[in-house]
């Protein structure tokens, strides 16, 4: 395990490749941004948009996937108020046991701001069964739900015959998931290869005693279907010079975004502005930490280091304190939902801990073998 020489990105992030100087892809990309002509990029975007004029009978110019959170709210407002487009917002909602009231309120806020929103909801029984199967097989309950979340947008784009999909950040450039890189910095059609979407196909779902028809909401359109519909995903983050976690949050809060009230020691969320529509993602961030050695706090800190609002030493102290934090209440609620005991949850988690990075004491405590910012 090695760390980026500039930020606190470890080389254990899936699909990340550091350069010869030991710099992570996200830091390299950030350095390139300092020399970008943002007016030129805006003009490039205008050229791209002209390739997708609204056709007869088409009521919307584009489709934007939303959760009601900071990024999707900023996208929706920028697309409508700056680009002067009419977007259809697509939201895949969680079942009642999972969705938070703040998530419901944030989607309602988007509707009150004047947007057209299509809300889809996969069958709750299948959703629960696949979450359980995902956790028991992969120690990753979101394996199935992320398929549904990402698949819903192109599925609706095909159904409504809206070829232009506007997305947020480019995970290849801004996070370092290099397999998602497309032909250009804004081309998102390789999003299907994102770490959370690729690998293993859907056979494991069929093995969970489900029929193919039950899995339609989880099926990302095949490349030939994608191409036949003429779909194009465009990363808006590539065109926005001030696209960042906190900037998006500040912009959205000024337009009615409701954020978390719980503290970072329960969530690892330093500012309470991430994954607002549900709470169990906090478990997955904790599990990610025990598998790869980094969690949500690392992502926050890396951005602050690149923006020179925090030193690397200050970031180390924050990551050591908050990475992997998760409230016992969230764990208990999740276990109750998928029908396992809390003890069974920890037994499964202990079996999945990366033993190259962590030791497990006789008391069950998981302790890092690495030093943040240094590695093994």
Helix content: 40-55%
Instruction: Supply the number of helical segments.
Output: 16
What is the CATH fold-level name of the largest domain? Rossmann fold
Shape: globular
Give the structural class.
alpha/beta
Q: Please state how the strands of the largest beta sheet are arranged side by side.
A: 3-2-1-4-5
Give the uncertain stretches in residue-range form: none
What is the domain tally? 2
Tally of DSSP β-strands: 7
Instruction: Report mean pLDDT, rounded to a whole number.
Output: 93
For the sheet with most strands, the description reads: 5 strands, parallel
Could you give the order of the helices and strands? HHEHEHEHHEHHHEHHHHHHHEE
Mind telling me the CATH class of the largest domain? Answer: Alpha Beta
Strand content: 5-15%
> Which CATH-level-2 architecture of the largest domain?
3-Layer(aba) Sandwich
Rounded to an integer in angstroms, the radius of gyration calculated over CA atoms is: 20 Å
Distance between the termini: 6 Å
